[in-house]
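Postdoc handover notes: sequence design on the structure in folder B. Input tokens:
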């Protein structure tokens, strides 16, 4: 049973492995598909086999490869960059790199290489950069690279090399440009060490010898040597040793010589000016002195360097630069972090390029006389400048580049007269004053670049940029505009291609502000306070490719979104306050439709409403809006219907009660002959005349009177309907001035109209008790119309009038009542006779 179990297990394992994709076993990260692979620190002990043969860049650093056998990389014929740093490589066998004919960079840093065969680097026909730092190399002779004729850079720093002697094979490295021997153990340099360089004068080699403990250079060791650059920094442990070694550089011809120390590697406590005397026999084109403290001397001690074309002083603590002789032929002077206490009043006829930077102790600018100056860099000095700027301040009219950035207060009281050749002007992070009082740049028609970013400038003068007709780049971030509105200040700048108005607290844009900028390619309006995205402002920017409106407070758009220029390729709207509501669904849908050209559209989030805050704009669903619209429409209609019904019920409640009562009492016999509607002011007439003549007369009539017949405890309106109308055949309306002015009387009259309509017969008898003014009567339109169109009774307080009144009223009341005419007539005659008696 056991063998069978093992067989089943093996089959299952084989099936499992067959289901795995090859790339699932690959420990490397594919940075650029089929081109770049990152295999750093993957615990590899051999070269991965799953990397495609098309790979060009491969990082295998921090693994444990130990041995590179023959043809280790033959699977990667297109490899151009190979990093084998700190792979614990001890042995590189012959032809280990065979097949890497296109490899240009090989890095072997930090490997404890013990064995290098003569053919270790065979096959590297195109190698240009070899980095063999910290590989325990004791001699250049141990490095078998004489056949690498394409090699341009060789870095063997941080090794155990004790001799600067270049092996004979260096004569074959005809393309070598840079040799780094820094941080080794070279103490002496002899005449024969660089014989290979004498035999190849066509070499243009840069030699780095810094951080070697050199204590002796044989006289004429550099005789007949031509170098592009020689660097000797932190090499000497005393001034005397340094002086002797510098003197023994005689006969050297070098384009750039770099002397001094490193910031954290100070060996020489003080720098004696006599050191510079040893340079008189060295042909130098450019000289750089770095990190020298306590320089005991004056700039005049640089006489041996009078003919160099470029002088660079970095962190050299000089007393001053005031007395540089005029005969010095320096064309370039760079002074950086030299802690000068004042700006030097230079008078140098040959200077074309002056860079005076990061000298924080210099309080104010001083005039200079540099007639050939074209480039002036004064950034990061905390300089103040009163009355900037004219050609007289610089002693030249040829200036093309002027950098006053990161300084103090600069008062521009001149309009750059004599500096019409300026092409580059930078004031960023300095405090400008008087820039908006007049057109300060009017004469700079050749200016191509202007930076006034973060200069505390408030722009309230539209003519500030007049004259800048050739300007291509304008940076003005971090300033402000009047009323926080971007005004029409770009009218004449038709050549502008780059405009930065970020962080300017902008809330609004003036109409037509960009209309003349037809060539603008990039517009940065980020970090402002814009509330709306209005494409109409950008309609005339026919060449615009990039528009940055990020970090504003934009909620939605305004106007037609089709007004954006067709040339626009990148629009950044991230970090705004988008309102993700149905009110703005067209704008939100536009964002979805245009997401391919919106920068980081997938990161755009909603700010309002509260329930949508933080959610992605692209997740907003228009279907929700359609559903909401349907719900809202139905809800509104329902509310309107219910409200209408409620209103009608409220308004016609008593009419409905009357309708219900009419249906209920339609077949029942009426108790009263008439329900009397009258004003309380007319109650005496009703009691003394109407009741007495109708209820005590012949035939007798039964009247419904509220003061007598309404049921106590029942609402008045209910009594009116239930006791008055439902139980009466007729309604008598006593019209008077008081009746018209009484709301209850009018209410009862309106109910009476409804009652008459529902009972389908003429049941209302109008009695006009007194003459009523037409103007008063017309206040009740319906009553006025009825009295105008129908017969009514008028009360006249005389014998004849009273007789006619009662006969007509009784006749109207008898209409529809069962009665005996003969008996009634007899009774009336008897009553009249009695009355006559």
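Designed sequence:
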């Amino acid at each position: 049973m056991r063998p069978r179990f093992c067989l089943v297990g093996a089959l299952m394992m084989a099936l499992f492995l067959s289901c795995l994709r090859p790339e699932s076993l690959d420990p490397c990260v594919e940075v650029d598909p089929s081109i770049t692979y990152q295999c750093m620190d993957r615990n590899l002990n051999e070269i991965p086999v799953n990397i495609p043969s098309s790979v060009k860049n491969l990082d295998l650093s921090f693994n444990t490869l130990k041995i590179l056998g023959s043809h280790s990389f033959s699977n990667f014929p297109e490899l151009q960059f190979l990093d084998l740093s700190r792979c614990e490589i001890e042995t590189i066998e012959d032809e280990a790199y065979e097949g890497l004919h296109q490899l240009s960079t090989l890095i072997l840093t930090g490997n404890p290489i013990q064995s290098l065969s003569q053919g270790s680097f065979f096959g590297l026909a195109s190698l240009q950069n070899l980095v063999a730092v910290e590989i325990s190399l004791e001699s250049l002779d141990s490095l078998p690279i004489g056949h690498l004729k394409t090699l341009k850079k060789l870095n063997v720093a941080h090794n155990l090399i004790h001799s600067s002697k270049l092996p004979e094979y260096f004569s074959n490295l005809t393309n070598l440009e840079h040799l780094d021997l820094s941080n080794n153990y070279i103490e002496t340099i002899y005449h024969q060490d660089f014989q290979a360089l004498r035999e190849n004068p066509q070499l243009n080699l840069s030699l780095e010898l810094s951080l070697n403990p050199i204590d002796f250079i044989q006289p004429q060791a550099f005789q007949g040597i031509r170098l592009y650059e020689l660097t000797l920094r932190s090499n000497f442990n005393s001034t005397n040793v340094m002086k002797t070694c510098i003197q023994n550089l005689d006969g050297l011809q070098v384009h750039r010589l770099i002397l001094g120390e490193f910031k954290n590697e100070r060996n020489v406590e003080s720098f004696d000016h006599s050191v510079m005397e040893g340079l008189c026999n060295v042909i130098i084109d450019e000289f750089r002195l770095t990190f020298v403290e306590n320089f005991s001397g004056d700039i005049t001690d640089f006489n041996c360097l009078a003919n160099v074309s470029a002088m660079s002083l970095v962190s050299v603590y000089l007393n001053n630069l005031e007395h540089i002789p005029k005969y010095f032929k320096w064309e370039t002077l760079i002074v950086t972090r030299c802690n000068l206490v004042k700006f030097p009043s230079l008078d140098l006829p040959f200077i074309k390029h002056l860079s005076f930077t990061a000298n924080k102790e210099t309080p104010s600018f001083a005039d200079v006389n540099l007639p050939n100056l074209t480039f002036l860099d004064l950034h990061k000095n905390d300089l103040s400048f009163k009355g900037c700027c004219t050609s007289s301040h610089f002693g030249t009219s040829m200036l093309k580049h002027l950098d006053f950035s990161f300084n103090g207060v600069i008062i521009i009281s001149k309009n750059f007269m004599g500096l019409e050749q300026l092409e580059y002007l930078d004031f960023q992070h300095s405090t400008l004053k008087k820039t908006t009082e007049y057109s300060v740049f009017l004469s700079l028609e050749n200016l191509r670049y202007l930076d006034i970013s973060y200069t505390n400038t408030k722009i309230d003068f539209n003519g500030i940029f007049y004259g800048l007709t050739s300007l291509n780049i304008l940076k003005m971030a971090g300033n402000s505009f009047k009323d926080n509105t971007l005004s029409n200040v770009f009218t004449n700048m038709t050549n502008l291609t780059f405009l930065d108005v970020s962080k300017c607290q902008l809330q609004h844009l003036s109409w037509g502000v960009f209309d003349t900028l037809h060539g603008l390619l990039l517009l940065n309006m980020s970090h402002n306070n814009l509330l709306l995205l209005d494409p109409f402002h950008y309609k005339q920017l026919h060449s615009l490719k990039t528009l940055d409106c990020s970090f504003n407070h934009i909620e939605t758009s305004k106007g037609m979104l089709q007004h954006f220029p067709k040339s626009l390729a990148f629009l950044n709207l991230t970090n705004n306050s988008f309102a993700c509501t149905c009110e703005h669904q067209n704008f939100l849908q536009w964002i979805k439709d245009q997401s391919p050209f919106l920068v980081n559209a997938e990161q755009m989030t909603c700010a309002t409403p509260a329930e949508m805050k933080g959610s992605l704009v692209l997740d907003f669903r228009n279907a929700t809006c359609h559903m909401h619209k349907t719900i809202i429409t139905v809800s509104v209609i329902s509310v309107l219907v219910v409200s209408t019904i409620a209103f009608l019920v409220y308004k016609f409640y008593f009419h409905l009660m009357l309708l219900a009562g009419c249906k209920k009492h339609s077949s029942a016999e009426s108790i009263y002959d008439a329900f009397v509607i009258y004003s309380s002011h007319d109650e005496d007439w009703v009691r003394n005349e109407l009741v007495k003549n109708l209820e005590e007369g012949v035939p007798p009539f039964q009247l419904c009177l509220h003061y007598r017949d309404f049921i106590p405890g029942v609402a008045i309106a209910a009594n009116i309907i239930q006791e008055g109308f439902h139980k009466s055949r007729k309604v008598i309306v006593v019209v008077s001035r008081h009746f018209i002015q009484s709301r209850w009387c009018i209410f009862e009259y309106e109910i009476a109209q409804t009652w008459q309509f529902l009972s389908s017969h003429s049941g209302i008898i109008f009695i006009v008790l007194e003459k009523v003014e037409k103007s008063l009567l017309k206040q009740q339109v319906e009553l006025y119309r009825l009295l105008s169109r129908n017969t009514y009774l008028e009360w006249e307080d005389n014998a004849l009038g009273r007789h006619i009144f009662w006969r007509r009223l009784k006749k109207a009341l008898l209409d529809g009542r069962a009665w005996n005419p003969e008996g009634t007539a007899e009774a009336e005659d008897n009553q009249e006779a009695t009355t006559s008696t």
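Context for whoever picks this up: The chain is about 20% helix and 20% strand. Don't rerun without checking with the PI first.
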